[in-house]
Amino acid sequence: MAWQNHLASRAKRPNLYYLATVVILCSVFYIAGIWMNSRGGVANLAGTECATTQLQNTTASQALDFETHHSAVDLPLAPLPPARASPFPACPVSLSEYTPCEDAKRSLKFDREMLVYRERHCPESGEVLKCRVPAPKGYTTPFRWPESRDSVWFANVPHRELTVEKAAQNWVRFEGKRFRFPGGGTMFPRGADAYIDEIGKLINLKDGSIRTAIDTGCGVASWGAYLLSRNILTVSFAPRDTHEAQVQFALERGVPALIGVLASIRLPYPSRAFDMAHCSRCLIPWGKYDGLYLIEVDRILRPGGYWILSGPPINWKNHWKGWNRTVEDLTREQSGIEAVARNLCWKKLVQKDDLAVWQKPTNHVHCQLNRKVFKYPPFCQRKDPDQAWYTKLEKCITPLPEVGHVKDIAGGMVTKWPERLTSVPPRIMRGSVKGITAKMFREDTDEWKKRVAYYKGFDGNLAAPGRFRNVLDMNSHLGGFAAALFKDPLWVMNIVPVEAEINTLGVIYERGLIGTYQNWCEAMSTYPRTYDFIHGDSVFTLYKDRCEMENILLEMDRILRPGGTVILRDDVDMVVKIQSIIQRLDWDSRIVDHELGPHHTQKIVWAVKKYRTAPAATDTDQTRSETSS
Averaged over 287-310, what is the pLDDT? Predict the structure, then answer.
């Protein structure tokens, strides 16, 4: 028991020592505080700035001061939130049909020889407009296909000139608030369908061997419009000239078309692109300049492809009086065309009534031999046959790929449509497209099927057949996006940027699709409000540090219809920048996760252009418009 009491007393000693220490320290601090207060001082703890209130000595006789001693001017300014960039202004109403690279005023500075002044002449960097091209007053959503083939709202293309100038040729009629397109043309007043039937009697248009076509000097593109029902996809082109708005009419009808002209530079298509080329009184001087323009048609025709000519000088014996041409003149023109065709080693298959058909050879075995007889034109030497962006025309034949046998098809045979769409293109099979294998092609095709299905999951308009007709893919690569949409009632203009590391446009044509080259630092050769839907994969990464992002997006705004949709996919940092500029365009937009999930390095911008039209043009605007045209 004594042992336990001893332990308890030892345990209590530390507690007594602790209590005594606390009492002594408190007493010391209390006395020190009284001493400092008696001297009128204020304790500054550790020299910090945390003591914001200064203790002051007061006496009962002192009055309390409640006046303000600090004003807002004395306080540091709080950082302001970043200001939202102002929206891009609308362009004047007079620019509602503005085509920057085919501007009438700018074109007058250039040579009229060979129609050079009608080629692309884009504004310099300091001349690029920083405004949104407006839709005209009364603009209305175009008719849906197939009704659009035959009807266009007048307010969308307010030009009646062709209804008068081409009245006898059945091009277009004006009825109430709309234009009607009976399907006629200069050489087919009975309609394009009947005209195509006549062509079908001369060459096979039904077995899928002819899929891609080009119409030079297309008018309102009725030939291409009526070929669509036969599964033949046509690129129609014509210059922006005195036949006001012919390409614009074509696009409003839902038919593929571009502003273009055969002049001094190559057409913006790869070699061996088209199965068929067509000219119906297109006013191209085929026999002039040593056959330079037929030489260019030869470059873009596939081996075994067809060239169809109607109009002067074909069947001149029955038409020469109506054409106001002399017999000698027409005879000389036809002889010149026949001579150029022979020098290109083409075979004239048939001439019947108003139609003549030539066929390009399937290889150049015999053509190389007959150069000993036909010295002109020679074969081109060491020039990329697919290079076609501001590339000067040359008076030489683009050589076809070599073959092992005289009956082989140069470059390889493409399969018939529709198998052609998913078959491995000959260019890839032969290994002529750097870095692209058959396996990669098949994987790309499958991947885009999944991507398009994902798009349709969040974009109901894309999923609704017929909602979109004219579609643009700004960076097409192998054409997988377009291929995934081929069952929908739409067409896709596939763009291969000239800055792309690999030129794949030839592959796209071998799939039975269409497209063109483009530098997105410049405007596209098309009218405002061309496309219902624009798609772009890594476009802004490709053009990073090449040109201003806002210029590309302003061009997209120009060529997109009111109410049209944009889907852009890119790296997440680029998507954030895109989104900030889109806000200045006043589109409705949001960022969507990549189809593989939120952790992927890419994101998707989904945007819709608001439906807005310009106010009625003022007298001043109308005068400017007439002057510019």
Answer: 97
Stretch 178-190: mean pLDDT, rounded?
87
Q: Is residue 50 scored above 50 in pLDDT?
A: no
pLDDT of the residue at 23: 55
Q: In whole angstroms, what is the distance from residue 187 CA to residue 281 CA?
A: 7
Quick one: DSSP state of residue 274?
A: E
The predicted structure's pLDDT at residue 219: 87
Average pLDDT of the residues in 338-365:
97
Query: For residue 189, which amino acid is it?
Result: P
Q: What's this model's pTM, rounded to 2 decimal places?
A: 0.85
- The better pLDDT of the pair 31, 276 is held by 276
Q: Which two tokens stand for residue 375?
A: 């010295």
Element (H, E) at 439: helix 438-458
Asked if residue 533 lies in contact with residue 554, where contact means CB atoms within 8 angstroms, the answer is: no
When mean pLDDT is compared over 33-37, 63-67, 108-112, 159-163, the highest value belongs to 108-112
Rounded CA-CA distance 327/3 in Å is 146
Dihedral of the alpha carbons of 266, 270, 276, 278, in degrees to the nearest 10: -20
78 DSSP 8-state letter: P
Q: Is the pLDDT of residue 32 over 60?
A: no
Predicted pLDDT at 467: 96
What letter represents residue 431's amino acid? G
Residue 234, C-beta contacts closer than 8 angstroms, at least 6 positions apart: 212, 213, 214, 215, 221, 223, 224, 227, 228, 255, 256, 278, 514
Give CA–CA dist 192/184, Å, rounded: 6
Percent of the chain as helix, strand, coil, to the nearest 5 = 35, 15, 50
* Cβ–Cβ under 8 Å, residues 155 and 251: no
3-state SS of 378-436?
A: CECCCCCCCCCCCCECCCCECCCCCCCCCCCCCCCCCCCCCHHHCCCCHHHHCCCCCCC
Residue 525 CA, distance from chain mean position: 10
Contacts of 4 (CB under 8 A, 6+ apart): none
Residue 496 CA, chain-centre distance (Å), reads: 9
Q: In this structure, are strands 257-259 and 178-180 parallel, antiparallel, or unpaired?
A: unpaired
CB 87: neighbour CB atoms within 10 A? 11
The residue written with tokens 């291969």 in the block is 496
Q: What is the mean pLDDT of residues 597-614?
A: 94
572-585 vs 549-559: helix axis angle to the nearest 10?
A: 50
Residue type, 181: F
| 3-state SS, one letter per residue, for 564-625 | EEEEEEEEHHHHHHHHHHHHHHCCEEEEEEECCECCCCEEEEEEECCCCCCCCCCHHHHHHH
Return the closest-CA partner of residue 529 out of 509, 558, 491, 506.
558
SS3 517: strand
Distances from the Cα of 113 to the Cα of 104, 121, 162, 341, 629, angstroms: 16, 15, 26, 24, 20
Three-state helix/strand/coil letters over 451-482:
HHHHHHHHCHHHHCCCCCCEEEECCCCCCHHH
Name the band, by pLDDT with cuts 50, 70 and 90, for residue 498: very high
Q: Please state at what angle helix 292-300 crosses helix 327-343, rounded to 10 degrees.
A: 40
pLDDT for position 16: 53
Strand order in the sheet with 173-175: 151-153, 178-180, 173-175
